[in-house]
Amino acid sequence: MRFRHPDGSTVHLSYCTNVHPAETLDGVRAQLRDHCEPVRRRLGRDRLGIGLWLAKDAARTLVNDPAALRSLRAELERRGLEVVTLNGFPYEGFGAEKVKYRVYRPDWTEPERLSHTTDLARLLAALLPDDVTEGSISTLPIAWRTPYDGDPGAARTARAALTTLAQRLDALAELTGKSIRIGLEPEPGCTVETTSDAIAPLTAIGHDRIGICVDTCHLATSFEDPDTALDALAAAGVFVAKAQLSAALHAEEPHLPDVRAALADFAEPRFLHQTRMNSAAGLRGTDDLHEALDGHALPDSAPWRSHFHVPLHAPPAPPLTSTLPVLRSTLNRLVGGPVALTRHLEVETYTWQALPAELRPRTRTQLADGIAAELTLARDLLVDLGLKELP
């Protein structure tokens, strides 16, 4: 979905296909047929943006087979789908029964991460629509904090890898005329946990190909104020390559038994749900929701937020809620002003099948309806901010 911003630029809205995990090219094609095109049809649009997730094996297949890449591009066009952004965070195994900490490997100290992201950039340059010259790729925020934080050479290694990537992106732009930019995606528990944590490593790299991806669930989980966060990024000269529109789980009174019982329904075995509370003493947290609920690992004298991407249009029932207000505030700052601070927006609710059983979609039809409803909410927010939807 495309929108005209008052500044004259085109803002792209998509949804991320990591909600339909596939490890192979055949699996990606099945996603387009079984999920993405049906969502487009439900929305009644001729064109729908998707934030494509390509696992390592699928990406390698496309890099090694130009005919397959041309065929995928043709299939996207035939199904009324377009790609201007990729989710490069998960490397492989995102559809496994237990993902947890695995999603952070390889990190930016390992050569596989540089190789994979280089592949993704080349593929995105080839998949961009003819009338689009800029693409974006979100990636993990350097590394999970352990063992990275205990390795004195890790920061140098990661910085060297990202600098090499920036140089490769410069060469790619010169060769293809397509500008691909990377966004480190701050996430609780990582060495770059917040937007403020991203400033030092990004300014150390100092290249306009490497910026930040603002995920509004992660921002909210860490209790960051959108205005403060975005002002600091602007002051440091850090650009927003893309924004992921997502909402975290919020518990206002986690000391109450009924609130803890409701939270326990979201403590599931597949994904990591980092949980945080903010107090006068600062930010406290656990690596997973079940750890916060077990014993007294996390104080419950102040609200909790958990890294669980809940559907934008359907917050959980009381006594829980979502951080949709943080998304609204962030979006207002990103595209509600006289100049768009980013042009790539991606709805990223990958946890549909991890929701409590009574909230989980049971059929493809129900999942497509839910994704379409999320995109409709995002579309309405953009229109309310003065953007005009394009055909």
From TrEMBL:
Residues 65-229 form the Xylose isomerase-like TIM barrel domain. GO terms for molecular function: isomerase activity; zinc ion binding. Keywords: Isomerase. Transmembrane segments: none annotated. PANTHER family: HYDROXYPYRUVATE ISOMERASE. This is Sugar phosphate isomerase/epimerase. It comes from Streptomyces fulvorobeus.
